[in-house]
Amino acid sequence: MTDAHHQATQPINLLQKALLIEQQWSPRVVAEMNEYQFKVVRIEGEFIWHSHPETDEAFLVLEGVLRIDLAEGCVHVRPGELYVVPRGVEHRTAAHGEAKLMMIEPRGILNTGHQGGERTAVNDLWI
Are 120 and 112 in contact (CB under 8 A)? Predict the structure, then answer.
């Protein structure tokens, strides 16, 4: 990787990066490690039900409260907490009021899994 924004020369302030994102539900890459991307995103309301059959998906809450709906109930994830949705598990993320998150997942994974639709974000957009 020779692109300058792929090589951080300073620590990355995740909340500051999240504030630069204009549109909710539009994850932006802030770093990569091996084949994994670290993405920040702002969310509010409910996303769509989906799964990722090929990978786990990690959510670290920076600000606000993330609700992850699962078939057996929901999990509330607060600032400083991390939750990993196992591969293949259908889930829906949601937030009452805005939440800022970091997601960790392999490069190339679509935010809507294989569901597609209007909420599918463009991959590999850096901020």
Answer: yes
* pTM of structure: 0.88
Question: pLDDT (tens digit, 0 to 9) for every residue of the chain, 127 residues total?
Answer: 434 455 668 999 999 999 999 999 999 999 999 999 999 999 999 998 999 999 999 999 999 999 999 999 999 999 999 999 999 999 999 999 999 999 999 998 876 666 666 767 777 889 9
Distance between CA 110 and CA 108 in Å, rounded?
A: 6
Instruction: State the Cα–Cα distance between residues 121 and 27, nearest whole angstrom.
Output: 7
Q: What's the gap between Cα 85 and its chain centre?
A: 12
